[in-house]
User: What shape does this take?
Amino acid sequence: MPALSNDWFNRLWEVPFENFFPVSRSTLSTRIPSIDVTEDKKEINVRAEIPGMSQKDIELTWHDGVLSIRGEKKEETEEKGKNRYFRECSYGSFSRSIEIGKNVNWEEAAAKYKNGVLTVSLPKTVVSQKAIDVKID
Assistant: This one.
C-alpha cells in the first residue's frame, strides 16, 4: 500500500492543477497556441495556430527584439424558446512572446491570418544577411 500512495503523490506534483481542476489537454492547447519559428538568409517566419479567432481579436507587437502575439475572444450565445431559455458566455485570452533578436526590419514585416493560422514574415536587416568571417587567434 505505501507504493500506491507514493505514486499518487508523485503524479499530483507532475500536473498539480489537473488533479483539482479537471481540464482536458485539448482545452489547454487551444488557449496556448503552437508556434513554429523558421529562419533563412533573408527572413524569419513565425507561424502560430490560433483557431476560432477573428483577425480583429489578434494583436502583434514588437519591442526590443521580442515579438508578442496576444489574442482575446469574448462570445455570448442566447436562445429563447417557448418553454426554454439558454444563455452561454465564454471568454478566453492568450499571450505568447518570442525573442527574435534586433536584426529584423520591423517596418517591412508582414502578417496574415487565414484558416486559423497566423503567419508573420520578418525580413532581416541587410547587415544580418551578410556572412562575416571571424578569425581565430
Remarks:
- Confidence is low (pLDDT under 50) at residues 21-30.
- The chain has one domain: 32-129.
- Residues 32-129 form a domain with the Immunoglobulin-like fold (CATH 2.60.40.790).
